[in-house]
Specification:
Layout (H helix, E strand, L loop, with lengths): L3 E5 L5 H12 L2 E4 H9 L3 H25 L4 E4 L10 H8 L1 E6 L2 H11 L11 H19 L4 E4 L6 H18 L1
């Protein structure tokens, strides 16, 4: 089976959805940021700090191509992954791309709850988080719109909501075939 790539802005539920989808479909789940961290023995934050964004994006593109060659996988990408190095074109040529979208309020709430787990947003007020995400979404949205499918990540808070979202997705996917 061709890979399924889950894309979208931070805190839209990419890892939550990707993990649940993989479990339900009997596939392997790979979180691209975690994969990079395991391979380079450093957090994404550390890689950014020591090597810079340009080198991180080079690493990210190489690791995306590595996991993209695997079969029977669901890959949850970082929020910026589709926006660099021809990654969106690569993913669309190789597998199914699914963009998770969530409302600004839901994303802001998740980012604030995560605290330091979202280093680019740590310490920002709710208003500053909303301003940052709206600015970044303006830049990233043209890439996200290239996904083959789009689903809502607003209802990925409870196990029941996650299960319902995955079930709806799989039902819609089966109807499209």
């Amino acid at each position: 089976m061709r890979p399924i790539f889950i894309i979208g802005y931070m805190a839209t539920g990419k890892t939550t959805f990707g993990r649940a989808l993989a479990r339900r479909a009997g596939l392997r789940h790979i979180d691209l940021d975690f994969y990079i961290e395991q391979r380079f023995h450093a957090t994404v934050r550390q890689i950014f700090a020591t090597k810079g964004e340009e080198e991180f994006r080079r690493i990210e593109a190489a690791m995306l191509r590595e996991v993209g060659e695997m079969e029977d996988v669901v890959i949850s990408c970082g929020g910026g992954t589709p926006c660099f190095s021809g990654n969106m074109e690569y993913m669309n040529s190789l597998g199914l791309t699914v963009c998770l979208r969530a409302s600004d309020d839901v994303v802001a709430d998740r980012i604030i709850r995560a605290g330091d787990k979202r280093p680019l947003m740590a310490g920002k007020s709710r208003e500053e988080v909303l301003e940052s995400l709206r600015c970044q979404m303006t830049q990233r949205d043209p890439f996200y719109r290239q996904a083959a499918l789009e689903i809502s990540g607003d209802r990925l808070e409870t196990k029941a909501q996650i299960a319902d979202t995955v079930s709806d997705f799989m039902k819609n996917l089966a109807e499209c075939k």
